[in-house]
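Input record (one chain):
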Amino acid sequence: MTVEVANPASTVQVLVPNEQWNDVRARLTESEAKLSQLRFAMDLATQIADLTRFIALAMALCNILAVRFKARRVSIGIIRGRHVHVKAMNQTEKILRKMQLVRDIEEAMEECYDQDADILFPSPAAGNFITRCAAKMISAHGNGAVVTLPLRRNGVAGVLMLEFEPGRTVADGELAILRTALDFLTPRIVDLYEHDRWFGARWARDWRKYLSKLVGPTHTWIKAAAIAITAFLAWAFFAKGTFHIIAQFTLQPVRQAQIVAPFDGYIKTVLVRPGDKIIAHQTILAQLHTAKLRDQLAAAQAQYAAYAKQAQVAQSRGKIADMQIADDSMNGAGAKIRLLKRQIAHATITSPISGVVLTGNLLRRIGAPVHLGDVLFKVAPIKPLLARINVLDSDILYVHVGQKGSLATASYPADKISLFVTHIDPLAMVKHKRNIFRVRAVLEHPPVWFRPGMQGTARINAGKRRYIWIWTRGLINWIRMKLWL
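The corresponding structure, as predicted from the sequence alone:
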């Protein structure tokens, strides 16, 4: 073939072989076809760009395609599970799935979905796909042709069906234009369908997606973790364990005596120190100076003798009034004598109970003054001992007399000593800015190394509760207090 190329100077004739020219022309034709397909897809997207609801967009798309391809009926179906549900149809506002026509259309769409291929009926000579459901629908609802195309997005997400009047055929170019437009619009169609559903359907879809991953053949470690977590939660919600009230305790003797100064005086001697064992009313703990008391006692005795002589003289003279005054003075002096004798007797300090001296290291205070009521010694028996448990006010509701438990001291945390609750103080006290109740418990078989004042942690058994309640009780109570629930 000869091609003339014009330029300002002259006209040049170029010989192009027919084979090359045919190839160029074929490429131009193919490019024009692709441009036409893209142009149609862009025009179609522009026409439905303002629609933000799935049903409105699907119906508009069906109506536009019906007019553009002169179709008798255009339908769009969406995949739900393993079935196709018709969602839109041209010139139809409400679709009843009970209608036989709708069921036949869905069967034909499922036939396309199962094969994941563009299906034409009547089938072309080169077609190798199954069209049994399409043929059944056409024969039942009027002759003609039908085209079903899958809407693909991460697999088949829906199906588009076009039904034509008898004698109308779909050319390969039209099918390519339609295929390009659907590939371009399917992502928006599917996204709009998924986000335009009511929230319950969206939640069900998300859960179905997660469950499909859980029971599918992939993500083995995720499934193993999910099974383990599920089993753990089921165990936590239904299994029961022992609910323990954990609190700090201090060991205290059952009995304790405080030895106080019997009068104002000075320490003369100290015969014991903390840790010494003593016997009640026998072991002398300390002595106070009595020289001043003895002087006062002698003076009081002299006064008593003088008053007694005055009374005798008044009586011999018959002076009744003077005798009564002397008797009263004598009684006062006698009372003072008895007081001084008792103080002198109490200057030798003993304990009313047997046990061990807990406090009272007075060896360095010999000669120091003491006042009436000053605590000099604390004495208590080593055995038996009580545990004074400081229970928080948030836990005291679950503590009852008779409950059992165990404790461990800070000195020997490995040794667990059994206990049972014997008394709960009715009044709370503040300790470290927190309200606590003092609970007393008796120890079963306490070891020989137990001493008053030892501290540690006690665990009181408060019955069986579900593990989830035990673990979340504190958090739930805190939320209820904050939100006033």
